[in-house]
């Protein structure tokens, strides 16, 4: 049943219906009808109720690269321009096929509209028959997946992230591609899709293997999926049916790289005697490695390119910080990162039954907010009732505190949170979030409880469990307020990387999109349980998480800061939280840290400490110096960086220092 909308992230191949190309009279948007010519998930097939045609609108075609031009309704050459647009579309699509996902939108009580989203274009194979040809998706395991893991997938039923793009729950893949071979069984693979696919041979059958000899021009590729024409698939299936068994010993022999060809390039730890060597032995995936890859894949499927370091940095900050703030100029993807993080955790979207998941709340902050009543509501003394704010925050916190939901995660995002003064409307939370337990939000006085009519629905105090996470986004411009030290003490302030040019951004996006690493549009991920997320966190109270060199560096930094102002020193809370961040750097399945420790310490110095370094020239000229070019740089803090190369190279911190030194020179004030 479709409520308001539903998205199927299974990829579908479609043939454009050329004669359907038209321009909508109201929106002036191009409109294309597409016949679906590949297998569909059962739930989509039932929702379509026998239909095989959907609509793709001009906006989605333009996002995929179709060169359209927009026209306003009042344009005096409207008819001429629209005819030109339709002719261009007919010429463009006559030799192309499309891949896309399907969205169902219910706009009235009776009718459901099916639209294509996340579109990509493909050249039509030479042998394609527009009247009879059908395509079947085949999962392709990327070449960079370790051979040992592939062996366990094919021979030991290992559930695998490598089939994320294959989202057809009722149809296990007939064959699987790896390197330049196809693998299968005589009667096809069996399998089940829970959070990840687990595939296996039917009882009494063995794995078989044939070389992949289909011309590339015959295959439609969509990241980790290959769509094969049914006649090509039948030919491969026949070879597998009559092929000899391909035992695991043969698999290892054919695909394992001889040890003489492996170049070991482990980082030296001799220069860092106080840092524990990283364990480079392969580790069992705790689910965190899978989640980080999921996060990157979800972003890419929505045409968003983030540096992997930014994603890991944000994830660690969520695990260890009371409040995470994404800062920077408008349009760099701050809000979208939070939205996609919630999607990767499985907190938003719709579940398998088509019901909306409500574990993610997005709250746009308003400039008029003056106190927490604007955020959480207030007690109406005249009518003796508690009136929650329209934000929905209190209702979500109550839901998260229910016993049945203790193992569910909840994420709350305050968008553009510095449009109003955070210290005013967020004041209660600033005090609550520094507590590790017994966190309660006060809605009204407990003395008033007996006379509050809806007290059973809204009790005087609402518990905030460790299953609730808070994130804020801020724009740095003239329309917003600066954060006070009270906020900065409790926040990891992250600035996302910005590519130097659009050309560089385009190159990175195309490289990732064609490398086979990013996932394709996918079915909604199952929510990550709270106990699983908690297992990714190292909250040991007996381990501070800092090495001797790191402690010495922070001690010397405090000595320098005391000479400026004894109240500017790095407090114990921040030191503990930096240690917690370093303890929680995740490792991949090879045992290597996703974020090198020295770089992580450098990021924490920027995000937790240097955000507070703002003030007049008289306070900071000794710390930062004054110069225009980095080559002229000399200051106390730069000398401290040079003294501790075993801790970090401090590249990010140096950049911040150079920026503040230039601000002191130009304006006499460091911001």
Q: What report would you give on this structure?
A:
- With 671 residues, this protein is α+β, with helices and mostly antiparallel strands.
- It folds into three domains: 5-123, OB fold (Dihydrolipoamide Acetyltransferase, E2P) (Beta Barrel), CATH 2.40.50; 135-258, no CATH class; 288-535, P-loop containing nucleotide triphosphate hydrolases (Rossmann fold), CATH 3.40.50.300.
- Helices cover 33% and strands 20% of the residues.
- The strands form seven sheets. Strands 1, 2, 3, 4, 5 and 6 form a six-stranded antiparallel beta sheet that branches. Strands 12-9-8-7-14-13 form a six-stranded mixed beta sheet, covered by helices on one side.
- Strand 2 and strand 3 (30-36) form a beta hairpin.
Main features:
OB fold (Dihydrolipoamide Acetyltransferase, E2P), 33% helix, 671 residues, 3 domains, globular, 22 helices, alpha+beta
């Amino acid at each position: 049943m479709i409520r308001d909308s539903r998205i199927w992230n299974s990829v579908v191949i479609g043939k454009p219906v050329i004669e359907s190309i038209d321009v909508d009279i109201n929106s002036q948007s191009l409109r294309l009808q597409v016949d679906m010519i590949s297998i569909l998930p059962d739930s989509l097939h039932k929702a379509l109720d026998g239909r095989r045609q959907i609509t793709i609108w001009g906006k989605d075609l333009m996002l995929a690269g179709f060169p359209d031009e927009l026209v306003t309704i009042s344009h005096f050459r409207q008819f001429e321009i629209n005819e030109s647009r339709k002719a261009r579309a007919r010429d463009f699509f006559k030799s192309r096929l499309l891949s896309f996902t399907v969205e169902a939108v219910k706009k009235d009580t009776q009718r459901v509209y099916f639209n294509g989203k996340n579109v990509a274009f493909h050249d039509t194979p030479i042998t394609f028959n527009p009247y009879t040809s059908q395509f079947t998706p085949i999962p392709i395991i990327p070449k960079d997946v370790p051979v040992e893991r592939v062996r366990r997938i094919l021979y030991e039923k290992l559930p695998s992230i490598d089939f994320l793009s294959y989202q057809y729950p009722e149809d296990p893949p007939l064959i699987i591609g790896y390197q330049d071979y196809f693998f299968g069984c005589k009667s096809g693979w069996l399998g089940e899709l829970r959070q990840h696919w687990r595939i296996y041979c039917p009882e009494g059958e063995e794995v078989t293997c044939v070389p992949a000899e289909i011309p590339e021009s015959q295959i439609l590729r969509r990241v980790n999926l290959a769509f094969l024409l049914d006649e090509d698939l039948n030919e491969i299936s026949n070879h597998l049916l009559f092929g000899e068994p391909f035992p695991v010993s043969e698999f290892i022999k054919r695909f394992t790289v001889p040890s003489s060809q492996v170049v070991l390039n482990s980082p030296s730890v001799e220069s860092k005697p106080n840092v524990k060597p990283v364990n480079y032995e392969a580790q069992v995936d705790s689910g965190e490695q899978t989640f980080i890859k999921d996060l990157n894949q979800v972003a890419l499927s929505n045409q968003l390119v983030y540096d992997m370091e930014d994603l890991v940095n944000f994830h660690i900050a969520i695990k260890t910080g009371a409040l995470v703030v994404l800062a920077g100029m408008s349009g760099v993807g701050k809000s979208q990162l939070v939205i996609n993080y919630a999607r990767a955790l499985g907190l938003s979207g719709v579940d398998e039954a088509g019901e909306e998941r409500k574990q993610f709340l997005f709250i746009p902050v308003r400039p008029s907010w003056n106190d927490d009543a604007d955020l959480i509501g207030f007690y109406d003394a005249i009518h003796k009732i508690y009136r929650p704010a329209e934000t929905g925050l209190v209702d979500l916190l109550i839901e998260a505190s229910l016993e049945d939901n203790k193992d569910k995660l909840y994420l709350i995002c305050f968008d553009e949170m510095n449009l109003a003064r955070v210290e005013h409307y967020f004041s209660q939370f600033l005090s609550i979030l520094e507590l590790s337990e017994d966190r309660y939000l006060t809605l009204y006085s407990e003395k008033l409880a007996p006379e509050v009519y809806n007290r059973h629905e809204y009790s005087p105090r609402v518990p905030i469990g460790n299953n609730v996470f808070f994130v804020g986004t801020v724009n740095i411009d003239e329309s917003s307020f600066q954060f006070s030290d009270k906020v900065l003490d409790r926040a990891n302030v992250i600035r996302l990387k910005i590519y130097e040019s659009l050309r560089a951004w385009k190159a990175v996006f195309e490289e990732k999109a064609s490398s086979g690493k990013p996932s394709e549009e996918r079915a909604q991920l199952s929510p990550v349980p709270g106990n699983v997320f908690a297992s990714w966190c190292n909250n040991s109270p007996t381990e501070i998480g800092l090495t001797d060199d790191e402690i010495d560096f922070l001690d010397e930094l405090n000595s320098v800061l005391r000479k400026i102002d004894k109240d500017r020193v790095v407090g114990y809370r921040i030191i503990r939280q930096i240690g917690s961040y370093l303890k929680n750097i995740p490792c991949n399945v090879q045992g290597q840290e996703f974020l090198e420790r020295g770089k992580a310490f450098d990021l924490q110095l920027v995000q937790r400490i240097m955000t507070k370094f703002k003030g007049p020239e008289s306070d900071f000229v000794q710390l930062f110096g004054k110069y225009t070019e980095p080559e002229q740089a000399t200051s106390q803090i730069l000398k401290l960086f040079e003294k501790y190369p075993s801790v970090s190279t401090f590249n990010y911190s140096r950049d911040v220092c150079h920026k503040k030194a230039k601000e002191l020179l130009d304006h006499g004030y460091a911001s």
